[in-house]
Amino acid sequence: MLIRLRAYTAFLMSITLFSYSEFALIVAAAWADSGLIPSTVLPIIAVAVTLSFVISAPLNRFAHELYERYEGFLGRLERTDRHPDEQPLTLGGAHVLVIGMGRIGTAVFDSLTEDGEKVVGIDADPGKLESHRQAGRRVVFADAEDPGFWNHLRFGRLEAVVLTMPEPESQCWATHRLRDRGFEGVIAVSTRSRHTVTRVKEAGADLIYDAHDAAGLGLGKAVLTCLGDERLDNPEPR
Known about the structure:
Layout: H1 7-16, H2 23-34, H3 41-61, H4 63-75, E1 96-99, H5 103-114, E2 119-123, H6 126-134, E3 139-141, H7 147-152, E4 160-163, H8 168-180, E5 186-191, H9 194-203, E6 207-210, H10 217-233
Parallel strand pairs: 1-2, 1-4, 2-3, 4-5, 5-6
């Protein structure tokens, strides 16, 4: 919080740094061999390191749920001046949001743009943003795993969201958040595993596509087909 990080970022960093490093055992063993510390201290350090991993494992597993529970309290600890990694709150006039601007996400973005759709992309890797902007793509920094991002996001004219993050947990999390926030548009997910299909369908996804099919071009066309059907059923001025 003192370095202007968002509450969510600071919370995740704290959980990640909660456990002791296993290198402490290596250093302690070396010190014990050289007589710098009594050999009886080594088992105590080993137990402390082990316990820290035992405690931190469930904390990392349920990090999102824990943050949601204490978000109100943690949010009050944030500084009023924001860190440069402030999340975007609106998507402008975009009709399609692509989350995860890697190889697949970029192919989907370009495919939809070529077909005349207004697309915006987000990615949690600041290193990717500049190259996308130089290529003329509208891509902004955001972390789709941050509950605060979803809580403050305004859907505007958004009709479809394409999830191309590689982690199944992130895809399910984002799908749940979209539906919980009342998003009724198309949710498309690119998956690398058949085991993910059932989970994202149960979370509320409309379209699940093989991430390796035509490097994302097929997913872009499938999203367009879904949008076409939605617009025929619910015609609105664009």
